[in-house]
Amino acid sequence: MASGGEVISNKQVIFKQFVEGFPKESDMAVKTSSISLKVEEGSNAVVVKNLYLSCDPRMRFRMKHSKDPGFVSFQPSSPLEGFGVAKVVDSGHPEFKKGDLVWGTVGWEEYSVIKNPESIFKIHHTDVPLSYYTGILGMPGLTAWAGFYEVCAPKKGEYVYISAASGAVGQLVGQFAKLMGCYVVGSAGSKEKVEILKNKLGFDDAFNYKEEHDLDAALKRCFPEGIDIYFDNVGGKMLDAVLLNMRLQGRIAVCGMISQYNLGQSEGVCNLMNIVYQRIHMVGFIVFDYFPQYSKFLEVVLSLIREGKIVYLEDIAEGLENAPAALVGLFSGRNIGKQVVVVARE
Amino acid sequence: MASGGEVISNKQVIFKQFVEGFPKESDMAVKTSSISLKVEEGSNAVVVKNLYLSCDPRMRFRMKHSKDPGFVSFQPSSPLEGFGVAKVVDSGHPEFKKGDLVWGTVGWEEYSVIKNPESIFKIHHTDVPLSYYTGILGMPGLTAWAGFYEVCAPKKGEYVYISAASGAVGQLVGQFAKLMGCYVVGSAGSKEKVEILKNKLGFDDAFNYKEEHDLDAALKRCFPEGIDIYFDNVGGKMLDAVLLNMRLQGRIAVCGMISQYNLGQSEGVCNLMNIVYQRIHMVGFIVFDYFPQYSKFLEVVLSLIREGKIVYLEDIAEGLENAPAALVGLFSGRNIGKQVVVVARE
User: Which top-rank group of organisms is this from (chains A, B) (predicted)?
Assistant: First the structure.
């Protein structure tokens, strides 16, 4: 029970049931609960007002009943959780005070109680859009940074291919690769996204995978010399086609496989023998392993933003009511750029 | 034309036609040709008498019509080629003289003309069986050594799994891993091989994959804590099951995928998302990249043999007439240990 303090209404996006196949808006419901804005006495929790919520593909894993301790399933009848930007309303923790801006895991609701404030980051730089801390300056940004610089071990002049290239992570990998002096091609699922890759994000080339009957042929057209680095966000048939086009000593950074997340049984990948022929390094990584490098990352990427050397596309959904559709839209590729939900702007 | 010298008959194993599916003995024919034992004047070639021939799974690649410059197809109506141990009969090359023992690529025939003697190694140590230079001291040995120590980056106490574990490469990887202080399990295709793994080669455990209906369950039984290192010689369903059992930061060295070589279309591998979950490094390698390290390898492994710290199982077929059956037998797992063909003993 809350020990006094203002109790106000708290709109929430409730997780209704475990999901098989493609998630639907009806797997979630927007309801109104109530919350005390005061931290319980003796607790070191923090109460926050949520401003921006992040829609991330890996939330799909938490929508199924999981035995894996690495993926804590969402609780039916409770709010979803994800990364978000929030403002501290009350704090029992010495490192946070009312008014602080933070980012980290919050509930999909107007106000959240954060019971382990050690897991959230304080935001010190507000000369950039706050929503960036769900994207370029948050988990997806660190994913792109660690995945490209640490996992791919890129060299100037190398041929880099990125799938889901206009997404939260892909658009940054492409820009990092251009800054490194690589030749960069991305794929995405619409003509509009392809135009953005080429004209706004500085990719050397791009293609719409939905219009290619033969992915192998599309890759051969874009990479007549083959691919040195594949940043894989999609898995499945695309990965299989890429394996046919890798160069000697190529590297595949496996970030995610969004094409597979809603399938009962993953598609089989057949061309793995090319890993031997071309001496490929295929490496899976998870951003959480790189969180200790966050402050170094932040310094570098903030500078790139301020110097105008890097841009970031966001797709903003307004209001918690639109959050279920925004999340579901990730899996049909409806979003252009990082999908964010605005709960409140301050 | 040969410029003089003794011309004698030369029995050969002729490659008849490109192969689809499983190779058959009838894809080859034993015929008798003739050869001059004198090197042509002005040539730096070497004429050798072949003693031991190596049957290697990767010869399968050369039995199909290949557009890949990395795999030069066998020429129909010409002898097969492969690694072998031979004795120099005549030499136009300053580094080789009559009577020298060598190993390297030779024809499947009694006598071969080696036109590029730079590609062959002189044998200096003959206190071990000469046939070892087709196996433990030749290409398979270097494969096991480089694949385990360089690609797998093993640490004492790690859990190591090896498929095709009694084969030319697998039996060595297992022994190297035991010397490193790892827990080592191998799989093979018969009860006899499993006994050999446990009782002759010092594996901690072994299983017959042909008797396991559920490879995932078999691996969970052998590795309740999971697998740190998988040395993959087979690919396909086994690789898929292993992916479900890898530990965090596990390494998969992809040496070969013999289960796939005779299939028109490779089996699909479905569990690749585990590469992300467990941050797996899956690395393909080819022994030829490690040939510059051969002398270092030779020194180490010769010592291990002489000290009795390592043993090597060979399966010896007698005579060129039996070479086609020996080669074909690799793909049904007929051989126990390294498959060698004796052409002559001196």
Answer: Eukaryota
